[in-house]
């Protein structure tokens, strides 16, 4: 027996196990017994000729062969899903799944955009994966998302990115901050301020670093966080000031929980981009969604903010 004789179901079960690293968890998710999961894994191990999992202490991990097979399983299962959606599109069915990768900041604009698109295509299912810029690019590379929304165009080869809406970044502070209301602040006026910043690897952090480096300004960093929500709450609490996307703080500005600082060079103007892999042709559903973002995205985001 070789892997040519492995079934799609066996690959699906192996893929689930490779992600969960727990046969019991896979059994619960797929409504199988643990014994049935173990049997299917054993069958695909016999077909591959290698053990695919090993136990190290109390943890189950993939073997080298398991890691290699997992990459092929992702590709095979994704290709089958793409083929299924393409066949559906040829039948004229407005159905299928769009997997969307969102950088952390994009979750503030994506729901309205996707809701508008889905209203015109009620038969589709949308799947969301969130992460920072680095993680979203990895999702694209591995084929785990069809499209990605990000605030900085990727430099990586093999990724096509198209701008679809303006994306301003501003300096925020609590309303009681003594610099609120002052005009044309130079960065020197912020020399004693404490900054709440995003983590390394995020597009917002990269933008901030470039902005300050160009002015030879070194911020006093009080806290770094992977969460825009945590940063906003820290600024509201008076821990410091922050440079964030205008689209993340619209509600707080309207409710006067936050204020903007009028700092030289701000707002920093970027664009929102929709990105996808060049090597994988977009299915009709994904092409329609990309075209919708390019044609309607700026208007929808502008109306919501």
* Class by alpha and beta content: alpha/beta
Q: Give the overall pLDDT as a whole number.
A: 90
* Approximate helicity band: 40-55%
CATH superfamily of the largest domain: Periplasmic binding protein-like II
Order of helices and strands: HHHEEHEHEHEEEHEHEHEEH
Q: How many helices? A: 10
Q: What is the total domain count?
A: 3
Low-pLDDT windows of residues: none
According to DSSP, the number of beta strands is 11
Instruction: Write down the Rg.
Output: 23 Å
Largest sheet: 7 strands, mixed
The assigned CATH architecture of the largest domain is 3-Layer(aba) Sandwich
> What is the approximate shape?
elongated
Description:
This protein is an alpha/beta fold and 305 residues long. It has 3 domains: 72 residues, Arc Repressor Mutant, subunit A (Orthogonal Bundle), CATH 1.10.10; 106 residues, Periplasmic binding protein-like II (D-Maltodextrin-Binding Protein, domain 2, 3-Layer(aba) Sandwich), CATH 3.40.190.10; 104 residues, 3-Layer(aba) Sandwich (D-Maltodextrin-Binding Protein, domain 2). It contains 10 helices and 11 strands. Strands 3, 4, 5, 6, 9, 10 and 11 form a 7-stranded mixed β-sheet that branches. The protein has a two-stranded antiparallel ribbon with strand order 1-2. A two-stranded parallel ribbon has the order 7-8. Strand 7, helix 7 and strand 8 form a beta-alpha-beta unit. Helix 1 crosses helix 2, helix 1 crosses helix 3 and helix 2 crosses helix 3. It is elongated, with a radius of gyration of 23 Å.
């Amino acid at each position: 027996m070789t892997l040519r004789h492995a079934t799609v179901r066996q690959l699906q079960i192996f893929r689930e196990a490779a992600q969960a690293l727990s046969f019991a968890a896979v059994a619960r998710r797929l409504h199988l017994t643990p014994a049935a999961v173990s049997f299917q894994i054993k069958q695909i191990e016999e077909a591959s000729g290698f053990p695919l999992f090993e136990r190290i202490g109390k943890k189950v991990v993939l073997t080298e062969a398991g890691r290699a097979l997992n990459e092929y399983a992702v590709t095979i299962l994704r290709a089958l899903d793409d083929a299924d959606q393409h066949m559906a599109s040829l039948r004229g069915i407005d159905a299928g799944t769009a997997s969307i990768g969102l950088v952390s900041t994009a979750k503030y604009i994506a729901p309205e955009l996707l809701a508008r698109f889905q209203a015109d295509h009620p038969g589709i299912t949308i799947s969301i994966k969130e992460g920072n810029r680095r993680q979203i690019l990895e999702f694209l590379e591995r084929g785990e998302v069809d499209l990605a929304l990000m605030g900085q165009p990727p430099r990586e080869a093999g990724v096509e990115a198209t701008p679809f809406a303006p994306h301003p970044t501003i300096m925020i502070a609590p309303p009681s901050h003594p610099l609120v209301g002052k005009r044309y602040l130079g960065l020197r006026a912020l020399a004693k301020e404490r900054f709440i910043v995003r983590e390394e690897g995020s597009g917002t952090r990269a933008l901030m670093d470039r902005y300050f480096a160009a002015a030879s300004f070194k911020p006093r960093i009080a806290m770094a966080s992977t969460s825009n929500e945590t940063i906003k709450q820290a600024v509201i609490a008076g821990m410091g000031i922050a440079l964030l996307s205008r689209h993340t703080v619209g509600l707080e500005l309207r409710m006067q929980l936050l204020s903007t600082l009028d700092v030289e060079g701000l707002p920093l103007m970027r664009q929102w981009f929709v990105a996808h892999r060049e090597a994988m042709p977009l299915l009709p559903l994904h092409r329609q969604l990309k075209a919708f973002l390019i044609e309607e995205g700026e208007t929808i985001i502008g109306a919501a903010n």
